[in-house]
Amino acid sequence: MKNRQGNNFYVFTGGPGSGKTSLLESLRKQGFQIVEEVGRQIIQEQVLRNGEALPWSNKEKFRDEMLSRSLLTYTQVVETQKPVFFDRGIPGLIGYSRLEGIEISEKLKEAVEKFRYNPKVFITPPWEGIYKNDKERKQTYAVAVETYEAVSAAYKEAEYEIIEIPKSSVEERAQFVLRTITEL
Fold first, then answer.
1. Label partner for 94 (CA 20 to 30 A): which of 16, 22, 37, 154?
2. 100 sits in which H/E element
């Protein structure tokens, strides 16, 4: 039995470009606390300083930096009693590692066990109609689908239940999430 630490921590995961950030921004506007995706922050910082912890330069360093930042953001909100919504979580790094052929470190395995979220994880399915590339998102839509499958498998393996968010307007998606967490 997993501990209940982080039971009010709700993870949003899925492949890139599937509407997670827009949905989380909608929830932020409604007054909920959001923990932003660390990967995008790392990419922006590394590009600014010509660093190598980038998914197109050094995938392992990028993954390890995402783990460090994810642990930090988790501990910063651990005392919060109200719902906290995370744009991605630690178990997704297992899926990323497998997708990229990176060895899964003991530190990552231990973090997945120790730093738990609510047992129900929200996943946004691939949605070609809204998928766009930008300066940080360079993956193809096919890679977005593979990422969705890899992170979904990683969360299931870590004993989380996946709740797929329907493809609908941002407002309808936010309502779905809020209804779901009140039913938990």
1. 22
2. helix 92-100
